Amino acid sequence: MEEEIIKFENVWKVYSIGKIKLPILKGITLSIKKGECLSIIGPSGSGKTTLLNLIGCLDKPSEGKYFMEGEEISSLSDDKLSEIRSRKIGFIFQSYNLIPQLTVLENIGLPLFYQGIDEKIIKEKSLKLAETVGLKHRINHKPTELSGGEQQRVAIARALINDPILILADEPTGNLDTKTGKEIMELLVNLNKEGKTLLVITHDMTIASYTKKIVRILDGKIINDN
Amino acid sequence: MIINVFHIIRIIKFGWKNIWLHSLRSLLTVLGIVFGVASVIAMLAIGEGASFEAKQKIKELGSNNIIIQSVKPPSQDISQQRAMLGVYGLTEYDLRKISSIPSIEKIIPTWETREEIRYFDKNVTGRIVGTIPQYSEITNLKISQGRFFNEIDNILSNSVVVIGSSIKKNLFIGEEPIGKEIKLKGNYFTVIGVSEEKSISGETKTFTSDINFDVYIPLNTARSFFGEYDVKRGGGSFERTWVKFHRFIVYVKESEKILTISSLINQVLITTHKNSDYEILVPLELLKQAEHTRKIFNIVLGSIAAISLLVGGIGIMNIMLATVTERTKEIGIRRAIGAKRKDIIYQFLAESIILSSVGGIVGVILGISIPKIVTKFAGMTTLITLWSILLSFSISVAVGIIFGIYPAKKAAYLDPIQALRYE
What we know:
Chain A is of the alpha/beta class.
């Protein structure tokens, strides 16, 4: 039996705009096992970004339960959720989201900075990961001096540095050309082969097809889970 | 998360980097604090210097003394009628009356005139003071060469003179003055002593004239050579005044009785001096007044400086708020990858504290240099106190904390999802 790391039980997310209640997620039940490679696919407005925010502990469900490694985390404090993000999640964003004034190496090491880890260790680990994503020659550059593909590689290295239980990629190829996008997806899939659990969120079927499992979401509901 | 020293150093390092990223903006922001701190230190230094100078002068008059001076009465006919004899001031009768007041240890009468003092071809204008031998003791006049005149000199009306240090410098260049004869109002006097130089700080001499230009002769000698008239010629007019005594210096041993005695003296004098041709100076009282004035001065200066620091603080807050908005996305990223709210607070607080501290340091340097420049070019005494430096620097740091907290909190309480989406 494979270990279940993420489990959603009838999760709702409702936003209130004035008096109007706007349900975005309507009873999501989802389970992700260790080492899995899956994508969540859906058109814009389907609630997939909200789902990603919930999985990534950036937001709390309005209703329902969220278990991470068997622990109920839906009602934790902001500090505890930050702690989980810092130790268990690796984010990859569509627009890379690197910090412009920091160098490549500093960007990669930033999650460990917030864990209060020694500077030397951070530097060692960051260097190793820069090598893994093929950017060893770029470590002292600023993000703006890099191409889109290179920036996304930096983001991937940053997502890996805290050795997360789950890599969350939100449209990781959305800002890249097809060729570079393919390279990035191959890099991610390879990471999965090495044992990392990978969740990709996309609206693009060709990207979703890289993953072994595809979950479709429409109008706040999962329509098939095969 | 454990906050250790290295972590704090890293936070400061990152903060410093961010400040340098916008060096011009940071410089402009910090100027408010720089001028605030500099003005606190400089203004207090100038204020302290002025009061120090005043106190020095008052001390020279002697804190156990009461000084009674003859003054030309206001709106009297002596100024109108040129050849009239102006009679005013303290008299022998006053001397006897005041001497009879108990608790008065000593009373030193003086008769003074401004005259040219000659030695061969050299001359200098100084003040001739005719007085009694106890004068040097009561006014704390030190003799550097020779001696002060004594009782015998006074009784015999000897033509002896004790000269001030500046008189010596002007008349006796490369010569020893003791035993030489100088000419005062056409009469020769033998120099028997030279008084020690007294430093008169600054340019303004509010309370005393430069006593280094004084010459002292026995009172009886003054009486027999110069009489009691004083004739001043100038601008086609001449004025004769008849003043018995110009000053009484009253020495009171117990300084707590000074006020009582000075009012007693006033009561004695007022009966015979209806035209108020005298004034009573109490150096101790002046000292207290100077102290009081200084306090008020410091409060006023302090408030002005506090306002400028406040303005500086608002400047910092303003720029930090702008920075927070500008870096909303960065805050979102940092939060997403695991920064806690307090990490964000530390980051922005570090920046505002760095800004205000750097401003404080530059302000201290500027604040120390301004009084030095003032002293050099305006000749004013300035006194930089350590407490003013410490106070203004700690206020500048405090300003950084107080005005940095709100922007930092604002940054920390941004919704990470909203912040990430911010472009």
